[in-house]
TrEMBL record:
Belongs to the DegT/DnrJ/EryC1 family. It comes from Synechococcus elongatus (strain ATCC 33912 / PCC 7942 / FACHB-805). The modification N6-(pyridoxal phosphate)lysine is found at residue 195. This is Pleiotropic regulatory protein-like. Pfam families: DegT_DnrJ_EryC1 (PF01041). PANTHER family: 3-OXO-GLUCOSE-6-PHOSPHATE:GLUTAMATE AMINOTRANSFERASE (PTHR30244:SF36), TRANSAMINASE (PTHR30244).
C-alpha cells in the first residue's frame, strides 16, 4: 500500500465528465451552436424531438421535459391530483427530493423500510403502511437497480393507488425486460450532469402512457396555461430548455453503450470485492438489469466515528469512514449516499419518526460507500482502486 506521498499524482474521482466531453464535445458544440444561432431557446422543435426520442427509448407514448428531477416528481403528483390531506408512500433511504416533492405538493410522506439486498422499497411492508388517506406509492430505483415493480404494481392495483416511479438514478434500467418509467402512472427522470444520461446543467422529465396526464403536465410546467396568457390553474415555471434538450438528444444515442460500460466495470468490481474481507458487494435481482449509477458497497461501521477516522476499529475489521479517508489520501474518490436517512432529517422532525423505526435504512446509512463509477473509468485506474481496497482491508485486520 503506497503512502500519500508515494501514490500516483493523478487522482481517481468518484465521477468524471471530462473524458466524455473529449469524446463527444465536438458533436455537442456543433449542435448547441445551431440552437444558439436559431434564437429559439425555450420549447420548440428541439425539445419536442428529444421528448419523442426519450419516450420511444423508455417504451412510453408521452414524455414531458421540465427543469429538474425534483420538479418532475412535483409535477407528476400535481398532475395526478395528489395534494393536501393525501399520503404518499416512499423510501427513507433515498435522495431527499423523493420525499420533498411530496411535501411540496402538500401531501404527507409515509415511509417504508428498504430491502437490504437492493436498497429499494421493501414491497412486503407496503400494505401495512396503507391508510384511507394513501393515494400513491413512489418507488425509488436507487443507484440504478430497479425496484420490484411487478409486486409494487400488484399492490397498487389492489388498493387503487397511483404509482410514480423515481427513475432519477436508473435511466435505461429494466425490470423483467420492461424499462423503468413505463410501469406506473408516471416515471420521473433527472438529467443532473452526473446521471447516466446527464445534461450540462439541470433538467428533468416525466414519462406517462396517459395523454390526459401528459396534457396536464405540459400545462403545469408552464404556469398552468395551455393557451398563452390564459391560466387554468396555478402551475410552475419548469421548462426544459432547447440547449439542454439538444445535448440530451446527442447523449441519448450513447446511453446503451455507456450503461454497458458501467456494467462491465461493476462486474470487475464484484469479482474482486468477493475476495476482500470486510466489504460486501451490491446484489442484483434476477429480474433486474442494473445500470450502476453508483457502485455501492457495504462496509461495517464501528459506531465511533471519531475513532474510525483516525485508525481502524478495535474489532480488527474495516470501518467505512476510515476506509474513505484512506482512499482519499491515495487520491481515490468515494461518496456516501446517504449519511442520514429521510426520517432522521431535521426537516422531517414533525413527522414523529425516530431512530430505530427503519432499521435497514439506518444500517445502510452507516455502511454504504460508493466507489468510482463512470463509463470512462479505465481498467488500470479501476485496478488501482481494487488494489487499494485489498491493501487497506489487510491493514485493518493486522492493526
Amino acid at each position: 500500500m503506497c503512502s500519500s506521498s508515494e501514490c500516483p499524482v493523478t487522482s481517481i474521482p468518484a465521477f468524471n465528465l471530462t473524458e466524455q466531453y473529449r469524446r463527444i464535445g465536438a458533436e455537442l458544440e456543433t449542435a448547441t451552436a445551431k440552437v444558439l444561432a436559431s434564437g429559439g431557446y425555450i420549447g420548440g422543435q428541439t425539445v419536442a424531438d428529444f421528448e419523442a426520442a426519450f419516450a420511444a427509448a423508455m417504451g412510453v407514448t408521452e414524455a414531458v421535459g421540465c427543469n429538474s428531477g425534483t420538479d418532475a416528481l412535483h409535477l407528476a403528483l400535481r398532475a395526478l391530483d395528489i395534494g393536501p390531506g393525501d399520503e404518499v408512500i416512499t423510501s427513507p433511504f433515498t435522495f431527499f427530493a423523493s420525499a420533498e416533492a411530496i411535501s411540496l405538493a402538500g401531501a404527507t410522506p409515509v415511509l417504508v423500510d428498504i430491502e437490504p439486498q437492493f436498497f429499494n422499497l421493501d414491497y412486503r411492508q407496503i400494505e401495512a403502511a396503507i391508510t384511507p388517506r394513501t393515494k400513491a406509492i413512489i418507488p425509488v430505483h436507487l443507484f440504478g437497480h430497479p425496484a420490484a415493480m411487478s409486486e409494487i404494481m400488484a399492490i397498487a392495483r389492489a388498493h387503487n393507488l397511483r404509482v410514480i416511479e423515481d427513475c432519477a438514478q436508473a435511466t435505461g434500467a429494466t425490470w423483467q425486460g420492461q424499462p423503468v418509467g413505463s410501469f406506473g402512472d408516471c416515471g420521473c427522470f433527472s438529467f443532473y450532469p452526473t446521471k447516466n444520461l446527464g445534461a450540462c446543467g439541470d433538467g428533468g422529465l416525466v414519462t406517462t402512457k396517459n395523454p390526459e396526464v401528459a396534457d396536464r403536465l405540459r400545462s403545469l410546467r408552464q404556469h398552468g396555461m395551455r393557451v398563452r396568457y390564459y391560466h387554468d390553474e396555478i402551475g410552475l415555471n419548469s421548462r426544459l430548455d432547447a440547449l439542454q434538450a439538444v445535448i440530451l438528444s446527442i447523449k441519448l444515442r450513447y446511453l446503451d453503450e455507456w450503461n454497458q460500460q458501467r456494467q462491465a466495470i461493476a462486474q470487475r468490481y464484484g469479482e474482486a470485492i468477493a475476495a476482500i474481507p470486510g466489504l460486501v458487494a451490491p446484489s442484483v435481482h434476477a429480474d433486474a438489469v442494473h445500470v450502476w449509477h453508483q457502485y455501492t458497497v457495504r462496509v461495517q461501521a464501528c459506531g465511533d466515528r471519531s475513532r474510525c477516522v483516525s485508525h481502524p476499529c478495535d474489532r480488527q475489521g474495516l470501518c467505512r469512514d476510515w476506509l474513505q479517508q484512506q482512499l482519499q489520501a491515495q487520491g481515490i474518490g468515494s461518496m456516501i449516499y446517504y449519511p442520514v436517512p429521510v426520517h432522521l432529517q431535521q426537516a422531517y422532525s414533525q413527522l414523529g419518526y425516530k431512530t430505530g423505526d427503519f432499521p435497514e435504512a439506518e444500517r445502510a446509512a452507516q455502511e454504504v460507500l460508493s466507489l468510482p463509477m463512470f463509463p470512462e473509468l479505465n481498467e488500470d485506474d479501476q485496478a488501482r482502486v481494487i488494489t487499494a481496497l485489498k491493501d487497506l482491508a489487510i491493514a485493518a485486520v493486522q492493526s
